[in-house]
Amino acid sequence: MTAVQHSEGTKLDTFACLYVIRGEPFRSGTCLNLTAAETVVGRASNSYSPDFAFSNAFISRKHIVIRKEEERAILYDLGSTHGTEINGVIVEPNQPYPLKSFDIIKLAKGMTVLHFSYLFADQTLEFEPLSITQRWDEPHGPLTIHWEKRECVVDGKRIAMSEKEFLLIQLLYDHANRLVPIAEIKQAVWPERSVGEDGVPDVTMDELNALVYRIRKKYGKDTFLISAVRGSGYVLELHNK
Predict the structure, then answer these.
(1) Best exposed site among 17, 43, 212, 229 by fewest CB in 10 Å?
(2) Model pTM?
(3) Beta pairing partners, 52
């Protein structure tokens, strides 16, 4: 892999990366390679430019820094005004947070959303260009889930869940604000299927995508804020869990 020169002059091979789920001016799916011993993420100004600059006004100029410490990526919030979350957990300023593959990092309450990974694909990950991935506000209508009845109440309307809808929604809800890998989804939602050579139930991506589509259409696109990372898995965004 080609080494990249960073502004502070430290030169290392890429050891991890950030995939942009949401964050102007970057296109969804953009891979931001982490190559330096220290990488600052923030907002550019006339007097300062971080290593990776986002344009949203709620992002602090020096929002977070990711440092390579003993071959691990450690995130620090640099006292940002509007905060940082990792997998839905608020990050305390200036405290070390070791990152793991599939971690979801949110800056300024989801104005910018990043997917961290030590893994590298042969090509840039693609994020589904759905309006749902462009949203960060709360669902408009009140939602109540009765797990024991396998029923959702949306805007006062009772909606029964099918078995597969129930299994997928429960799995994503239990792992809210984290990327749930495709293999884990297939094992949880289709346990009755025969297992292939890779040890994963024989379920096509068309079947999985169709199930997610049905959930969005049946319950309303703003009820379950599900983002798809094509080739990796799905994320259910919950701000109140």
Answers:
(1) 212
(2) 0.56
(3) 41
Write the CA distances from 14 to 52, 73, 118, 167, integer angstroms.
15, 12, 9, 38
Distance CA 68, CA 51 (A): 15
In a 3-state reduction of DSSP, which class is residue 125? coil
231 touches 125 (CB < 8 A): yes
Average pLDDT, the chain: 82
Q: How far apart are CA 215 and CA 36, in angstroms?
A: 42
Helices marked H in the chain — which ranges?
163-174, 182-189, 205-219
Q: What is the C-alpha to C-alpha distance for residues 203 and 90, in angstroms, rounded to an integer?
A: 36
Q: From CA 87, how far away is CA 77, in angstroms rounded?
A: 14
Mean of pLDDT values over 65-73: 94
pLDDT of res. 12: 54
Tell me how far apart the alpha carbons of residues 55 and 131 are, in angstroms, rounded to a whole number.
Answer: 20
Q: At what angle do helices 205-219 and 182-189 cross, to 10 degrees?
A: 80
11 pLDDT higher than 80: no
DSSP conformation class of 213: H
Kindly tell me if the per-residue pLDDT of 158 is higher than 80: yes
Phi (first) and psi of residue 206, to 5 degrees = -60, -40
In order, the DSSP letters of 65-123 are EEEEETTEEEEEE-S-SS-EEETTEEPPBT--EE--TT-EEEETTTTEEEEEES---SS
* Nearest-angstrom CA–CA distance, 168 and 18: 26
Round to the nearest angstrom and report the end-to-end CA distance of the chain.
39
Indicate the SS3 state at residue 41. Answer: strand
